Amino acid sequence: MIIKSDEKVIYCYNCRTMTLFTRRDMNNNSGVESHCSECSYVWFEWQNRAVEREKEKWIEYNELTFYL
């Protein structure tokens, strides 16, 4: 897998796999909105970050609640 400077490998919560994340639109222009290269749907990087933050909050909550 060749990774360009504006791409990175991430875990996509939409297709549930490690995948290449690109910041290019259909006209090959670099942009802010990103999508997983494997998904048929548009999946934005902020959605992955939001899921990660929620996951961290629940892990912290469960540790504080159930392991005291």
Q: Structural class of the helix and strand makeup?
A: alpha+beta
Overall body shape: elongated
The biggest beta sheet, please?
A: 3 strands, antiparallel
The strand line-up of the biggest sheet is 1-2-3
Strand content: 25-35%
Question: Would you report the number of β strands?
Answer: 3
Contiguous helical run count? 1
- Distance between the first and last residues' Cα: 45 Å
Give the domain tally.
1
Q: What number is the mean pLDDT? A: 70
* Topology order in helix (H) and strand (E) letters: EEEH
Explain this structure.
With 68 residues, this protein is of the alpha+beta class. The protein has one domain. The protein is 32% helix and 31% strand. A three-stranded antiparallel β-sheet has the order 1-2-3, with no helix packed on it. The mean pLDDT is 70.
In short:
The chain is of the alpha+beta class and 68 residues long.
Please give the structural blueprint.
Elements: E1 7-12, E2 17-24, E3 30-36, H1 45-66
Antiparallel strand pairs: 1-2, 2-3
Keywords:
31% strand; 3-stranded antiparallel β-sheet; alpha+beta; 68 residues; 3 strands
